[in-house]
Amino acid sequence: MRRAGLRSLILGASIFLTASHAYAAPLVHVQADDSLDHFVEVDGVLVHYLDFGGEGLPLVFVHSESWDATTFAGIAPRLTEQAHVLAVTRPGYGKSEALPDPFSVASQAEALVSFLDALGIDRAVFAGNSSPIAYITHLAEHHRERVAGVIYLAGLMPLWLEGVRQGDPAGANGMAARAFDRPEGPARRTRQALMSWRPAFLDGEPTLIDIAALAFVARSGTIGYERHSEALVLVGSPFMADLLRDLPASPFADFIRRPSEDPAFRAQMLESIQDPEARTLLLHLADDPGLQEEVWQYQQEVVAPALEEGQTRFREAFGDHLRIARLDVPILHGYEYRDAPDLVEPHLRRFLAELVEQEGH
Fold first, then answer.
1. Helix (H) or strand (E) holding 4
2. Residue 88: alpha-carbon gap to chain centroid
3. Whole-number Å distance between alpha carbons of 24 and 238
4. Which of 63, 113, 281, 312 is most exposed, with the fewest beta carbons within 10 Å of its own?
5. What is the DSSP annotation of 264-310?
6. Per residue in 304-328, pLDDT tens?
7. What 3-state DSSP class applies to 227?
8. 28-39 burial, b if ≥16 CB within 10 A, otherwise e?
9. What is d(CA 330, CA 243) in angstroms, rounded to the nearest whole number?
10. Architecture of 3-359 per CATH?
11. CA-to-CA distance for 23 and 33, rounded, in angstroms?
12. What CA–CA distance (Å, rounded) separates 269 from 48?
């Protein structure tokens, strides 16, 4: 079993809030042409990025955990008529050198500003999913002059509620989150950083982020997985049957159905967990329907309402500056740009065209 490959899909696949830590299925990776590879010094370290060409307004794609800039190699060339398209490998990932500690939402966001400085770019559109939602929101709130627009590929995920999501009485979601981490790895550091992050618009009087934003949503008008627990998916719980039933056919759907359909695969997956505490709890959860029900009830009664309210606060923060793009999918896992680019491309092109007109490029 390829633990690294598997870890990266349920995180993106599970979707469940941070997409930085779960168990991922092997998907087809798009290989980027070596001629697109570039390096630039950012805050004293070498940072890798891909330059897909195009002219005018710069668009910078920012990857999530377990990936690098090459994850955008499929969608980026489709947008070069509207923008100069770049994808950066964040410091500490892939071919990019790591920045010194401390690791925080602010430090990751500030590195993106330094990346613009290193390339001589004044303003850019930033696009990201999962944890980069926090980084590009920080930029929109604290570096208005450097941000021409923001694109939330995974919707308006309220990442500041990570502590609520992991607070079920059994601790199951927290254990699922760390099940396939390396203790020194970036995914665990990212999750810890998100636990202490709060966007400025939550504090004090409501403030308006006066930057153009595009956010994708599922057909429900939300991210669509508010009531689903990644821990219950990992253990193949029947409480997740509605999620598994409604997913359209895809490598992602095939993979996350496997724990419920293939007991041998589920057992092998859970036994492969290196964190002993997480392994013990999740194996127990797989065999205890009563505990599964407790986790499910917490998700319905506490997590789901919090996530729904958080998305509302996010929308209100942008007000009329926010464009919503509704996709015909039951849940938004945030990797549609890679797995179903035809779904998102028209919305991205339209949004960029509007920004180009506004910016006068």
1. helix 3-14
2. 15
3. 20
4. 312
5. HHHHHHHHT---HHHHHHHHHHHT-HHHHHHHHHHIIIIIHHHHHHH
6. 999 999 999 999 999 999 999 999 9
7. coil
8. eeeebeeebeee
9. 8
10. 3-Layer(aba) Sandwich (3.40)
11. 28
12. 33
Query: Which secondary-structure segment (H or E) carries 342?
Result: helix 341-359
Enter the tokens of residue 77. 């060339």
pLDDT of residue 19: 36
Residue 100 to residue 114: CA distance in whole angstroms: 15
Q: Look up residue 111 and give its two tokens.
A: 């590195």
Structure tokens at 99: 């920045």
Q: How far is CA 30 from the centre of its chain?
A: 18
Which residue pairs, CB below 8 angstroms and at least 24 apart, start in 247-253?
247/330, 247/331, 248/329, 248/330, 250/339, 250/340, 251/25, 251/26, 251/27, 251/28, 251/339, 252/9, 252/12, 252/13, 252/25, 252/27, 252/333, 252/335, 252/339
At 127, list the tokens.
């696009």
174-213 pLDDT per residue, tens: 898 888 766 666 677 787 888 889 999 988 666 789 999 9
Instruction: Give the domain ranges of the chain.
Output: 3-359
Enter the pTM of the model: 0.88
Calpha distance 309→18 (Å, rounded): 17
- Comparing CA positions, the residue from 105, 63, 68, 108 lying closest to residue 192 is 105
The phi, psi pair for 296, rounded to 5°, reads -65, -45
